[in-house]
Write a structure and sequence with these properties.
The structure is a homodimer. By secondary structure, chain A is α+β, with helices and mostly antiparallel strands. Chain A contains 5 helices and 9 strands, in the order E-H-E-E-H-E-E-H-E-E-E-H-H-E. The relative contact order of chain A is 0.18.
Chain lengths: 252, 252
């Protein structure tokens, strides 16, 4: 049995998220259907980040085991010929024994794009909130986040996680073509955590002390204290980090 | 009879260009259909730039005459409620008597986006050529363009224009998120001119003297000497300039 690792990009607009669901067009469903044809047998895939409906990926990592002897370049070529336009295989490689895209991942990097004006071209990949953006205040709101943090306040209500403690390695905003972009890296993310942080940052932005407002929400551990969930289309899984990658910058 | 001016944005992916054609989904067709309902009567629109199939717009200007007494804000509101997601009314205003979006325009600004890597999110709005981008050489290739120029070499073969002389006010490349973006302003553009200039710039980029290569194509006035037409999805009509606009920077 070999283990194969794929680097995927997808436009999440027309997918009901990563996870296979009967009767729904999902990334896992479309990918496994084409892997079945390419490898002539059932394949079960695992993804580093289980993106929600409408969420995009430029750097999703997926692993699967196969008994096929087909070279990895041929697997990638067969997939590339067959996959729809909105799902792209960026790279494919043999993975070390025991590699699992989800369990082996050390950190993930997501982006969230906010628009400061309506933009018909970018509306699929960014969200325009109803408030004017204050980049400086947004940046100050993120200051309490880096470090080992209990992120229960940012976990979707009704969901549960074995461990709400996350190691946040980076959380910062920068100016972008048409608004502001959040760059956030953590060892793992709770369900809807980034989208809830964005909603909370937009509320904290309008407070006299954005950092204190964010710190109070974090310390409360209460979902009800955080802001509204930002919509999915602004979110993108940009990169996943593994120990064995030599030059990723955050792995060791 | 009043004259109304609209500022439109559209994602050109699912339109067969601006111009109404029977049985085709075009921007003019969709817009006039909804104006007919909003104003309860036939309306003929005119656009500043007749964009081709697949070409986008963030700043298209459209004018039409109407005998309706409906306030312009109500016309805009009716359109906004009815128009599809990929066609957006950004602004609407009463225009001075005699205003025509096409004939009154003094200059147009287009962008063309090139990718230097595959990007599943940006592939609708940018083009990845098969050559590596050299921004410095691209920039040098544009140097012969600003000024009063006979642009016959960049006019689509088989088309004709009353006057191939264009006043090019700006033509420059800059780095962009995922590649290079061309910013070009001229009083008017010939059919497929920007896309032919982009194809020619990509070829000139690989010459020892990119500026001389571009100048030779320009001087030849022969379409056969220019490069291949770059595909439509990288092109976007960004802005149209009029005399009556106070702060546009290029009008007077």
């Amino acid at each position: 049995v070999r283990s194969i690792r794929l680097l995927l990009g997808y436009d999440g607009t027309s997918f009901h998220g990563w996870q296979a669901q009967p009767g729904m067009r999902t990334v896992q469903g479309v990918l496994e259907e084409h892997l079945r044809t390419a490898l002539d047998g059932e394949v079960r895939t695992q993804a580093a980040g289980r993106t929600d409906a409408g969420v995009h990926a430029r750097g999703q990592v997926v692993s699967f085991a196969t008994t096929s002897a087909l070279p990895v370049a041929a697997i990638a070529a067969r997939l590339r010929r067959a996959l729809p336009d909105d799902l792209m295989v960026r790279a494919a490689a043999e993975a070390p024994a025991g590699f699992e895209a989800r369990r082996s991942a050390r950190a993930r990097r997501y982006s969230y794009r906010l628009l400061d004006q309506d933009d018909v071209l970018l509306r699929r990949f960014a969200w325009r909130p109803r408030v004017a953006l204050d980049l400086d205040a947004l940046e100050r709101a993120m200051r309490p986040l880096p470090g080992e943090r209990d992120c229960a306040a940012f976990m979707a209500s009704g969901s549960s996680a074995p461990c709400p403690r996350c190691r946040i390695l980076r959380a910062s905003w920068r100016r972008w073509e048409a608004g502001a972009i959040l760059d956030i890296v953590a060892d793992h993310f709770l369900y809807r955590m980034v989208r809830n942080m964005v909603g909370t940052a937009l509320r904290a932005m309008r407070e006299p002390d954005p950092a204190a407002a964010m710190a109070a929400v974090l310390a409360s551990r209460e979902r009800a204290r955080a802001g509204a969930t930002a919509p999915p289309q602004g979110l993108c899984l940009e990169q996943v980090f593994y120990d064995e990658d030599p030059a990723t910058g955050t792995s060791r």
